[in-house]
Amino acid sequence: MTSLLDPQQSYTFSRIFDLKIDTEDIVLEFGYTFARSQLQLPRYSGPIDRLADLRFRIDSILPYVSLSSETSRREVLIAQVIFEVIQITKAQLKIEYPLKVTDRLQGVLDYLLRSETEVLVIEAKKQDLDYGMTQLLTEMIALDQWDRSPDQPILIGAVTTGKIWEFAQLDRATKHFQQGLQSYRAPDDLEDILRILIQALMP
Questions:
Q1: Do the Cβ atoms of 172 and 86 come closer than 8 Å?
Q2: Domain assignment of residue 65, yes or no
Q3: pLDDT (tens digit per residue) in 94-110
């Protein structure tokens, strides 16, 4: 198969997004496999004490904030969700974290969350979740090959506009990706989103 990426050039995660490469094609480029399915991700079963407060804060502020920019979506929607995840998991958060594994696997991760044994990556997009998923999976491949990534069998990633969240998982032993067909909306599906993100950081 002809390579989609020029081996003589360097690529960043954001450049791969701009190239508008199909998700399955970019995964195959790096020697992984891919399928879309109804992804049943594990969910945290414990209490989320501040869920009602979080939903109220988001609902009450949305009428007064323009979400036309990626920055506003990050600060008003995405960050609020991530802070709640941190409150429960005590995970370490890296924002706009630079990562370089190879010249073709490098760039900036919007959000990288790390607990003692688990790692989770979240990619924020203003729009175009399809190619956002392409970028996310490329970032997950980089994390899979990164020597500082925890030795966990399954990697979980999310791509989001703030209002819409989609998930993918990587089985590291088989190098197989599953992209979930489901989309979750915030704040309507806020509890589902939180329970998936929290569990992804649990040992």
A1: no
A2: yes
A3: 999 999 999 999 999 99
